[in-house]
Amino acid sequence: MITVMGATGNTGRKIAEGLLAAGVPVRALGRDEEKLAGLAALGAEVRAGDTVDPNFLADAFHGSDAAYTLLPTDQRAPDYPGRQNAEGEAIARAVQASGVRHVVALSCVGADVPTGTGVILGLRRQEARLRTIPGIELYLLRPVSFFENFYGALETIRHEGVVADSVEADLAIPMVATRDIAAAAVDALSRRHWSGEIVRELIGPRDISYREATRILGERIGKPDLQYVQLPGADMVGALAQAGLSTSFAETYVEMTRAFNEGIVQPLHGRTPENTTPTTFEDFADELADAWRATDRTAATAD
Ligand SMILES: NC(=O)c1ccc[n+]([C@@H]2O[C@H](COP(=O)([O-])OP(=O)(O)OC[C@H]3O[C@@H](n4cnc5c(N)ncnc54)[C@H](OP(=O)(O)O)[C@@H]3O)[C@@H](O)[C@H]2O)c1
């Protein structure tokens, strides 16, 4: 049995589905029974509960051969780093109490940097918590920006006609498809072939700038002139707050994008065959374009 946290999210759903497809029994965790129903239909044991509840988690990890852990952290949390800490502490306590030995934990490139990386600092603190658990075999997945973040841009394109963020327009950075993160996790969780601590970076097939990604997306959705706009940090905080996210999250996010702009967030040894993953942004842009057309139809129906 493998326990998968966040099983209705970007990475967890693909990991749960990948394990089930390989015939591995899965206990899928989320917070909403209805959203977990699809995985139950595929044969998963599903459990809904809160990630800050160590008893729920310890019970869910108990008897598992391995667990996939992540910090889901609500971007509306009034104290975002505090919420990351609460989730991280609950997970670490539950891992220790349950005795699950093999843990594959979602972190991020840049978790080696001790200050100034915003969201990534919370993941660094979680790596440190897990590392201190006696007897744990720890596989740290360190991807970078998910291609899936561009789903959030579709709304901005509809309302503002642009893609906007606080990352420099022409800065080529690594970005990765969550399906490639899931593939690495499924492999580690099912084989459990490591001992001690492994750091596995996953950085996509090539570095790509927001301007280039925006151009590719624009071509796919019939807007070849779609522009990327780099917002100053304060404006980005305002835009995220206006979208309903907490100021605490917005500031933590902008600190992370500043770290990208300053070149602080980097793979440990540059790009290597081991950290390079196969799915291209062009492949992914087709999925995004499907989602764009679906929201287009929804908006047209609502008008
Ligand atoms: N986005 C990036 O570019 C990036 C890059 C590197 C690392 N990361 C890290 O990736 C993590 C997020 O992973 P993801 O994108 O796979 O997840 P996600 O898509 O954000 O989904 C989060 C999952 O956790 C569940 N969840 C949310 N709040 C919960 C709660 N209070 N109790 C129980 N379950 C809860 C969600 O359920 P519902 O479906 O019901 O919401 C969902 O299944 C974060 O730690 C982030 O820092 C992100």
Describe what you observe in this structure.
The chain has a domain at 2-147 and 174-202: Rossmann fold (3-Layer(aba) Sandwich), CATH 3.40.50. It is 47% helix and 17% strand. The chain is built from eleven helices and twelve strands. Helix 1 crosses helix 7 (178-191). It is globular. The site of NADP nicotinamide-adenine-dinucleotide phosphate has 26 residues, from helix 1, helix 5 and strand 7.
Bound molecules: NADP nicotinamide-adenine-dinucleotide phosphate
What is the CATH first-level class name of one domain?
Alpha Beta
> pLDDT average, as an integer?
96
Sketch the major β-sheet: 7 strands, parallel
Task: Draw up the topology in text.
Elements: E1 2-4, H1 10-21, E2 26-30, H2 33-41, E3 45-48, H3 54-61, E4 66-69, H4 80-98, E5 102-106, H5 119-131, E6 137-143, E7 145-146, H6 151-160, E8 162-165, E9 173-176, H7 178-191, E10 197-202, E11 207-208, H8 210-220, E12 227-230, H9 233-242, H10 247-261, H11 281-302
Parallel strand pairs: 1-2, 1-4, 2-3, 4-5, 5-6, 6-10, 7-9, 8-12
Antiparallel strand pairs: 9-11
Structural descriptors:
seven-stranded parallel beta sheet, 17% strand, alpha/beta, Rossmann fold
Could you give a short description of this structure?
The chain is an alpha/beta fold. The protein has helices spanning 10-21, 33-41, 54-61, 80-98, 119-131, 151-160, 178-191, 210-220, 233-242, 247-261, 281-302; strands spanning 2-4, 26-30, 45-48, 66-69, 102-106, 137-143, 145-146, 162-165, 173-176, 197-202, 207-208, 227-230. It is globular and about 55 Å long.
